[in-house]
Write a structure and sequence with these properties.
This protein has 238 residues and is mostly beta strands. It folds into 2 domains: 35-121 and 227-236, Thrombin, subunit H, CATH 2.40.10.10; 123-224, Thrombin, subunit H (Beta Barrel). The protein is built from 2 helices and 16 strands. The strands form 2 sheets. Strands 1-13-11-10-14-15-16 form a 7-stranded mixed barrel. A 7-stranded antiparallel beta sheet has the order 7-6-3-4-5-9-8, covered by helices on one side. The radius of gyration is 16 Å and the shape is globular. The two termini are 30 Å apart.
């Protein structure tokens, strides 16, 4: 398994469902699950983009690097406790993007001010027992701005896949061996779901980094990649 690229292929079942622009053919997340889910927004005037993230430490959120907008005029915000709600905004103190000799990868940590409401972080993976081919994983997302505010969940299965794909016009890397592959007939996501956690046995094993018309298939960064695991551990527990 290690060293192989795994990518999630999403298959749509109708053009009507494609218009929903969020996880569909899924279900409303249970109110007692996915409490770690974080909403991340970037705003500039009337322009708004949205991503998901996962609270992995009371002061750290794991998400996708392409969610960060550092161009002039953009404001980044994070909200914890959004599921089941109402949630509260926290201050983003710093952001760290994984960077090696080959460039920046699509995985990022946000340091936040401790939340005023109690939210338990999601458990980091036990990489001695990763999901295998055919195992069921779970993903959650809010979709694009303007969609209904409730968190949507979906179940998918691990599959083999070929070479990784890269997002449209993105300088970020999805290197072979550092991505995972999943597939489920009739399930789809959108760019607003990027950054959300991929769960197996109630632990987070990946970060969703793809979706929408620019990426086929979509992909998840593999948190059991040794470099990522070491970077996360050293960043949140210096």
């Amino acid at each position: 398994w290690r060293g192989k690229t795994r990518i999630l292929r999403f298959r749509t079942i109708s053009a009507v469902l494609d218009l929903h622009k969020r996880i569909f053919n899924g279900y409303d997340c249970e109110n007692t699950k996915h409490l770690y889910h974080v909403k991340i927004t970037a705003t500039k005037g009337t322009a708004v983009s949205r991503c998901g993230g996962s609270l992995i430490h009371r002061e750290w959120v794991l998400t996708a690097a392409h969610c960060w907008k550092d161009q002039p005029g953009w404001t980044m915000s994070a909200y914890v406790g959004i599921h089941p709600g109402p949630g509260s905004m926290v201050t983003i103190i710093d952001h760290q993007i994984f960077d090696d000799q080959t460039g920046k990868h699509d995985i990022m940590l946000l340091k936040i001010s401790p939340a005023s409401i109690r939210t338990d972080p999601v458990q980091l993976p036990d990489c001695s027992i990763p999901p295998n081919i055919g195992n069921e994983i779970k993903i959650a997302g809010l979709g694009l701005p303007g969609e209904p505010p409730h968190l949507r969940c979906a179940k998918m299965h691990v599959v083999n896949c070929g070479l990784n794909r890269t997002p449209c016009n993105s300088p970020l890397l999805w290197p072979n061996g550092n991505t995972m592959c999943y597939e489920e007939a009739g399930v789809d996501t959108c760019p607003g779901d990027s950054g959300g956690g991929v769960l197996f046995n109630n632990m987070i094993y990946g970060v969703h980094v793809g979706g929408g018309t620019c990426v086929s298939p979509a992909a998840f960064m593999d948190l059991c990649d040794p470099e990522y695991a070491d970077w996360i551990r050293k960043t949140i527990n210096p």
